[in-house]
Amino acid sequence: MSHFPKKGLWQQCPRCHRHVHRLEWGQLRICPYCGYYLRLTAKQRIQQLTTGNDFIRLPKLAEHTVPFTFPGYQQKLAQAREKTGLKEAFVAGQAQLAGATFILGVMDSHFMMGTLNIVVGARLRQAIETAKQRKLPLILVIASGGARMQEGILSLLQMNTVLAAYDALNAAGLFTLNILTDPTMGGVSASFAFAADIVLAEAGATIGFAGKRVIEATSHEVLPTDFQTADSLYRQGQLDAVVQRSNLTAVVSQLLRLH
Amino acid sequence: MLKDQLKQIRSSKRLSAATVITALTTDFFALHGDGYQGDDPAVTVGFGRFMRQTVLMIGVNRGATIQQRLAYHFGAVSPAGYRKVNRGLKQAAKFHWPVISLINMPGAAADVAAERTGQSQAIAATIRQMGQLPVPNIAVFLGEGQSGGALALANCNRILMLGNSLYSVASPEAVQAILKNRRQELTAYLPMTAPQLLKLGLADQVITEDQHTVQRLQRALTTQLTELQTWSPAKLKQQRQAKYLALVAPSD
Ligand SMILES: [Zn+2]
Fold first, then answer.
1. Where is the CoA carboxyltransferase C-terminal domain positioned along the sequence (chain B) (predicted)?
2. Of A17, A181, B144, B183, which one is least surrounded by beta carbons within 10 A?
């Protein structure tokens, strides 16, 4: 269930500032006036990319573990759980779409900005390894601000361990597809985000390594208006396609058919 | 104090990668450029003789003088720099040269050009190539290392840290910003110092800093390399993965 209706039935569009009714946002959460995409929850993504209710969560996904006592972190985690109804920022399962069976993993930006920590990394490796064992394609919907600072160096070490698992899946000859959504940054962008056979981005997504504010503060450069946008990365040859949200199911279906 | 430690690490008097390369190797030849976009002087990649064999050395340059610091972008390695590293790693794998990386670097290059020229993919490629090397690799933290760039250069069989060096997820300043106003030092909450990371099992050896630091480092590298060179390529790859997996596995 979406936990957003608590805010009420009307939500202001961050881009055109109109007040839009929940029904008008629709299942894909697109502003009817300006086309702005609200960020989707993991549950909404799974619905978008799965036929009917054909999503079977992987059994025994890694659970909560906090390595260090970073002040305020437990409360942040509790708030994120309350807000999203999820235990962590990544969910994976076996899914079906267009007659094809695959492993679908989804990061949820509503949960501490989808940041990479011990549990998210463990779940990612679990999803990757399950795809390898079951000889199924892997589709990841990525949304992450990068490494979760509250888990320190152990968040950073998710980058090499997840990438190593991902590379092993590619070496096993299984199809991998990453869909970069808003935002795809930092340690996620610089490890497994671009490791797939096909890398798509959802239109409007911000994708990059360093954050815009950090770049502005460090380099004192004026950032181009299209900086770190999916469209600009596409022009630079870093993406295979930029896909409209309403078209994503069709494109993923096509890729599954061809593999 | 962390503040003093950072000051020391970032000082122009800090033991530099260039000094270590000069002290440890003979006949050093530096690669130039990424064969594509340009050369990044923030990182030296080259090979020379060490322990009567050729080794690949990777050293991040922060620069000592203002002119050097500007020329090296204060040690912020750009995508061209990582691609030069990747060229070197390819040769190391081809010619069976052990790899030694020397790390004292700020976070990633934070500018428009770095993002436009594929910073994410360049770092990911370095992480991958370091992890897949069929030869031993050893990372040496001479100063600070943080974020994906340092991780890429430290995806190694062994990690040696000078006593005052630091290895963290992001710059201590950036982590401090989310900690807000706490009395205690950041290191009280997150391990990032050499002794802390040794205890955690991430660092393998801490090198005492004194007037013999370079000699101590040389001895440590010799001992570690001598052991690692008896290992098969498969064992070297396997040990890297197993080491990091054990560290990141969730505990109950
Ligand atoms: Zn709108």
1. 2-227
2. B183
Written as six digits, the tokens of B91 are 């040769």
d(CA A113, CA A185): 10
- Ligand 1 centre and the CA of A34: distance in Å? 4
Residue A16 belongs to some domain of the structure: yes
Domain that holds residue B19: 2-245
Q: What is the pLDDT of residue A60?
A: 80
pLDDT of res. A52: 82
Query: Same domain, yes or no, for A185 and A218?
Result: yes
Please indicate, yes or no, if residue B251 is contained in any of the structural domains. Answer: no
The HSE-up count of residue A229 (CA atoms within 13 Å, CB side) is 11
The domain total for chain A is 2
Least Cα distance to B153 among A58, A156, A96 occurs for A156
User: CATH number, domain at B200?
Assistant: 3.90.226.10
pLDDT digits (tens, 9 = 90+) for B124-158: 999 999 999 999 999 999 999 999 999 999 999 99
Q: Does A129 lie in the same domain as A17? A: no
- The pTM (predicted TM-score) of the whole model is 0.96
Please indicate, yes or no, if residue A4 is contained in any of the structural domains: no
Residue A34 is part of which domain span?
9-38
Domain count along chain B: 1
B190 near A CB under 8 A: yes
pLDDT in tens, B56-114: 999 999 999 999 999 999 999 999 999 999 999 999 999 999 999 999 999 889 999 99
Dihedral (CA of A111, A112, A114, A118) sign: negative
Mean pLDDT throughout B23-46? 96
Complex ipTM more than 0.85, yes or no = yes
Q: Are residues A33 and A46 in the same domain?
A: no
Residue B211 belongs to some domain of the structure: yes
CB contact under 8 A, A190 and B119: yes
Give me A193's structure tokens: 């985000």
- Min distance B213 CA to chain A CA atoms (Å): 26
Q: B141, B160 in Cβ contact below 8 A?
A: yes
Using CA atoms, how far residue A121 sits from A76, A188, B134, in Å, is: 19, 10, 25
Binary contact (A164, B170; C-beta < 8 A):
no
Question: What is the block-wise mean pLDDT of chain A (259 residues), using blocks of 10 residues?
Answer: 62 95 94 96 96 87 83 94 96 96 98 97 97 98 97 97 98 98 98 98 97 91 95 96 98 97
From the list A74, A85, A159, A87, the residue with the least C-alpha distance to A116 is A159
Q: What is the 3-state secondary structure (H, E, C) of A39-76?
A: CCCHHHHHHHCCCCCCEEECCCCCCCCCCCCCCCHHHH
Residues A229 and A111 in one domain: yes
User: Over pLDDT 70: what percentage of chain B?
Assistant: 99
Please tell me whether residues A28 and A74 are part of one structural domain: no
Among the partner-chain residues B110, B124, B175, the one whose CB lies closest to the CB of A163 is: B124
